[in-house]
């Protein structure tokens, strides 16, 4: 970890310990959330998008200012059918995106940019050759770098053991999709999956998104490889790899330092169109914005309300 | 759609997933509490109905699958029912050495786990608490010097002999009338949204002559009989394949044929899209079962299968977490 990042973490941790959590709403003024507003918005997300649920996480990591059973939000086994980098190539060809922050070049994208919409129906069945190349390369990398690295020789290869000796199963009622569907067929896209979680960041007073990636056989992806599924504008700047506040291990996270400012801009845009944003919809707006950072991870943030497009 | 009449009904195997947190907790349990005690440990697995047309769900082990050191017992699992985490009872056999791991008598472990399922079917316990039908077991060896974990799952399934034959299987939307499909979707969403039923993975569907659908508990089987209503045997299907039911149906069929003597079964593979009932992804199938001779006698335990395939063949999986767990490496990466 870079020294400055470590220093900042230490500073942030100290501030979080000695300050009390926000109780007064500053949602419209600053784009931030109080703890109770986070719980309110989370409850609304869970009820509208039931693939999301509240969890309590590691008992030792519980935050006293959040309810025990509502420490963070998570949605598991979310498909990511192709790498963000390849989508961007097509996307730029189609006209590019709208930046909210041209003056200081933060690279945050407008929520109305449409990376999800641009990847039309064909992505299900007709992966482009670029996508295949990228996904192949990354699968090959992931095994030696994460699962053992230089100590590889020490780890016995399970294939040598032939430990299926005392398992004699020959049952015609078993459907074998892996054997049947993947006979060296290069047209099958290796689907990655993600567990996406949202925690409350007390320092920045905003939600924070965490990504845990898995390869096509549900093996853990090295967090660095997760960057391939992050929009390249953000991959090196705003997505960092840190300890998860409620789960064990290192996970990739969209750094929340600009979340408040971006949310404030989104809220201002809505208000200028005559839409009064409600605080319990915060996470829908937030996830819509996060979709510009991770355009190919298909988590659910179904919109069932007017986003302010009426003036169009 | 569907398969040729008389074909053997084939079930898509359950797939396992182990969260990193599970290995962290197992390691600390092993170091701080268990020592060399290698007796079987009760664990809880979690699964949910398939919720994406191209992706099956897994049976997952998370850190809360293992009860941690006793002080945490009281505060553990405060959210009793979580619709995305339907709990399934399992058993972990964690050995002390790689040799012991490789020499485990897998066949007899599987048989003894299958016998528990069989006994629960005969005693009626499986009707009261249907989660026992999906009972599973895991063998593992935790190499804490190298932070490597070897493991293999088994999802025991009682083998019907002769095998069930498939009459037809198709999307529920094609099998039901549009009024029935709408009523069933509403009923399923209510079942999944109620905290008392959200994680009950096996159920009965009653469709009355006026096309209205109701979902009932297995223990209400008797009251569903004799009205001339359609009766479907429903289960949360973790698999996404368009022509095959998922693994949990296997032991459910064993229950249906032994306990209720049903020979032609209409089943509902319940699947969702974005967390809501989806009748075009859900399947309705029809199958014939002939109750195997001897099944009435609970002393006769049927054969069982269920060791997991990984990448198309049977064998252990191994994960190395030295990067996340080895104190030396953590110190180096933090410096």
TrEMBL record, chain A:
It comes from Melastoma candidum. The lineage of its organism: Eukaryota, Viridiplantae, Streptophyta, Embryophyta, Tracheophyta. This is Uncharacterized protein. It comes from the Eukaryota.
